[in-house]
Amino acid sequence: MKRIFPVLLSFISMTLFPPAVSGMPSGPHGSIPGSYSRLEGDTLVIGNNLIERKFLWNGGNLMTVSLTDRTTGHTFGSARMQPDFMVADGAGAGQNGSCRTEYVPADEIHEAYQKTVVTFRIGNLSVRREFRVYSDVPAIACDTWLKGSLEAADRSRTVSAADRKNIESAADAGTGPLSGVLDRFEPGGLHWHCRAVEFWDVTDWNNNLVAERDFIPYRRAGYRGNLLFVRDGISGNGFFFLKEAPCSGSQLAYPGNDFVVEFGSFSVTGSGLSAADMSESGWTQTYSCVTGVYGPGELSALKALRAYQKRLRRHLPERDEMVMMNTWGDRSQDTKVNEAFCLAEIEKAARLGVSHFQIDDGWQVGKSPNSALARGSFRNIYDNPDYWKPDPLKYPSGLAPVVSRAGELGIELGLWFNPSVQDDFAHWRKDADAILALYREYGIKVFKIDGLAVNSKTAEENLRRLFDTVQKESGNEVIFNLDVTAGRRPGYHSFYEYGNVFLENRYTDWHLYFPHWTLRNVWQLSRYVPAERLQVEFLNKWRNAGLYGNDPFAPQSMPFDYIFATSMAGQPLAWMEASNLPEEAYGIAGLVKDYREVSPDFHSGIILPVGEEPSGRSFTGFQSLSDDSTGYMLVYRENTGRGKAVLDTWLPEGKKVRFKPVLGYGAPFVAVAGEDGAVEFSLPDRNTFALYRYAVSR
């Protein structure tokens, strides 16, 4: 399971500019502990207690001098000096450069951070780069805005290797300059090992969501993905780039790759902008980029990445933890949705133990294209000013009776909402007003956002305006479930601050729901995406059982508690109508209750995959690392005859570990972790699970 990047030869670390050890105030109203930013002469230094990046000022058009991991003390020095950010012919010094540092306080959504703002001009182009540094995070993020002309951007494109000539001289190996570089680091040397990680959403069409490509850099080549891990050899230390953008296949103005690598040169490409997106009067934002450092071992790399990801949105249990029921999974669409149906569903949902009940498409006056009752449309929806009001025929007293009864039963009501995609979300303010009206009248705080088509920079900007406005005017109380099942959407690494990810639609009606498929998707994603951000479906296993025949992986062959357990690493989503459940289904109510009590602590840790990849016949699971010595282990025995199996984990080798069962069918035991954290787990039957709390002996 666990793979350690090969240790390869490195270069000698530069010592010309030793790591800074003293900080400076981040602003007049506060500071980030351990963080600093200072411009001294021709050198800008940004960092905290874990990372430092040093730049040559170059008139504001910064060039990285060194990158230091302050935990290990290892410094990567630049072998060649050229601007880190480049569009078109921006390789020279900047003009009118300026630098200031600000303190950005925490709110209900964002953690506090230090912001260093660098501005400069290159010809007719103005550039603003804002570097974010969080406390105790070994990474520095950079958000970039442009204003002016971008006429020569995106000149470079990926060239097929088949179209290149033989190399018989140094001149034959020459390559032209890159354009559209978001960030760059050139430590030089020949002996590196890299991993590019590409992601897929559009999950109505995709069921393989992660691909890793390990490679040794050679001549210039492009790679796709949101993540690039780079590790040097002798020390085993490394750095990573995270491109905060949609999945590669959904990005705007895509140049064909996200990273360009050539020997010891590493660049992040694809700004998400074309010349037509630019304005002479206003700033336009590119995709963002994060640079982080880590020490030897893969766990160090993944913890560094996750430390940053967990700072992007505060995870508040009372707001962000949810076991949601959404009735769309039983395929009645909008034919049943009305007050009586919802009231009956809520009663049964409460018996099951869910925390949220979400009414999908059909509650509103307007009819969508997915309506089974009428041929609707998302075009010109505001020709009907009542489009986003509760249908008075279905809800004669509005949503108040449903909201009231849900509240009495301890359930929060949520709604489905489809922003007016027409004309690049030009009517975003009307969408915001519609959501805010529902929030103010009924107190509804959770909205599933569907139907997005972010096909232009204008659409992206307007969508941000919509979400930012709703958050601001609701006091950051509203949360969005961002559907990634179809269309060009934000994906897993952008729009992070707005809520969680509605991962996939799966239906027994087409016998395409298999619990191990869903488990596998979450298992693979969890290495690089926080699992607690994912809404993970579990379905009514009794529906459409005949369509599966004798399939050994059919949901009806599994206990219902096990099916629920396959969603526990994320935010469980009961994708079903409670009224269609048999009485025996409510036997999981105790499990759901106990899970809701432990889930905030479980989700607060760094959740990573352990064991074998889910296949239907595997021993598999997740580990939540609370700290270096405590956490949780969630283990599944799929439909396999093996009663026990040795699982590689992220536990320290040679340490004694005590396991105490919290949920499921495990028994307490003590083990000594072997190589790669190997521990033997046992479970009594096929399709059973156990959640343990563990403690490592000091």
Please tell me the CATH architecture of the largest domain by its name. Alpha-Beta Barrel
**Helix vs. strand class:** alpha+beta
CATH superfamily of the largest domain: Aldolase class I
Largest sheet: 10 strands, antiparallel
Beta-strand portion reads: 25-35%
The CATH topology of the largest domain, please? Answer: TIM Barrel
**Average pLDDT, all residues:** 91
Q: How much helicity do the residues have?
A: 10-25%
* CATH class term of the largest domain: Alpha Beta
Total beta strands: 36
The general outline is globular
Q: Taking Cα atoms only, what radius of gyration do you get, to the nearest Å? A: 26 Å
List unreliable stretches of 5+ residues.
1-28, 152-170, 172-178
Number of DSSP helices?
Answer: 10
Structure description:
The chain is of the alpha+beta class and 698 residues long. It has three domains: 243 residues, Distorted Sandwich (Beta-galactosidase, Chain A, domain 5), CATH 2.70.98; 287 residues, Aldolase class I (TIM Barrel, Alpha-Beta Barrel); 86 residues, Immunoglobulin-like (Sandwich), CATH 2.60.40. Helix content is 15%, strand content 30%. The protein has ten helices and 36 strands. The strands form six sheets. Strands 6, 7, 8, 9, 11, 12, 14, 15, 18 and 19 form a ten-stranded antiparallel β-sheet that branches. Strands 20-21-23-24-25-26-27-28 form an eight-stranded parallel β-barrel. Strand 8 and strand 9 form a beta hairpin. Helix 3 packs parallel to helix 4 and helix 6 runs parallel beside helix 7. The longest helix has 17 residues. The radius of gyration is 26 Å and the shape is globular. The two termini are 25 Å apart. The N terminus is likely disordered.
